[in-house]
Write a structure and sequence with these properties.
The complex is a heterodimer of chains A (about 120) and B (about 110). Chain A is an all-beta fold and about 120 residues long. Helix content of chain A is about 0%, strand content about 50%. The chains are: A mainly beta (about 120), B mainly beta (about 110). Chains A and B meet through strand 5, strand 9 and strand 10 of A and strand 5 of B.
Chain lengths: ~120, ~110
């Protein structure tokens, strides 16, 4: 149980385009989903927290207009990188948690984004 | 804010050897999670510890949380190449913010 699917796993696109990444909880209802970013050989950096049906809470230094997060249902959250540039290239990982705040988060397999 | 430090940052062992990874919190923990990540992949949930003095085991991995709930250790017995990866501890809280992790290499 507790499977989180992230799609796509790899995306390459031109500078200036927008890229959407999906995160789905397959066998449980995810009240809260989290988006992380990871640079090579570094730990995960929390970008934002999203609760179903409400606006996402962004961490300090993360541009809201750059990284649009939507959590429209209990099984789906999306991260859209708008007008992506080479510096946005990174590994993005989502995680999902059920109703109880004490439950562990379950992670997707990540999306490797490369902007040319 | 709560900070977690792991030691060592990097560990190289020969297959079959035992090893221990430590996680120290700057504040008392309400609980602790251990995860494992292979480079370029997502995180795998290993264990959750909630009570002071609690110990849990799964296959050859044992994790403990000390009585004061500020330190945790993760012990691997008879390590195998499949244990290689980055081990991360994180606080059981509203937001899961990880430390830098411990990179484990197991040489065959």
């Amino acid at each position: 149980g507790a499977v989180v699917s992230q799609h796509p796993s790899w995306v390459i696109c031109k500078s200036g385009t927008s890229v959407k990444i999906e995160c789905r909880s397959l066998d449980f209802q995810a009240t809260t989903m989290f988006w992380y970013r990871q640079f090579p050989k570094q730990s995960l950096m929390l970008m934002a927290t999203s609760n179903e049906g409400s606006k996402a809470t962004y961490e300090q230094g993360v541009e809201k207009d750059k990284f649009l997060i939507n959590h429209a249902s209990l099984t789906l959250s999306t991260l859209t990188v708008t007008s992506a540039h080479p510096e946005d290239s990174s590994f993005y990982i989502c995680s999902a948690r059920g109703k109880s705040r004490g439950q562990p988060q379950h992670f997707g397999d990540g999306t490797r984004l490369s902007i040319l | 804010s709560q900070e977690l430090e792991q030691s060592p940052q990097s560990l190289i062992v020969q297959e079959g050897k035992n090893l221990t990874i430590n996680c120290t919190s700057s504040k008392t923990l309400y609980g602790l999670y251990w995860y494992k990540q292979k480079y370029g992949e997502g995180l795998i949930f290993l264990m959750m510890l909630q009570k002071g003095g609690e110990e849990k085991s799964h296959e050859k991995i044992t994790a403990k949380l000390d009585e004061k709930k500020q330190q945790s250790s993760l012990h691997i017995t008879a390590s195998q190449p499949s244990h290689a990866g980055i081990y991360l501890c994180g606080p059981r809280s509203e937001k899961l913010v990880f430390g830098k992790g411990t990179k484990l290499t197991v040489n065959p």
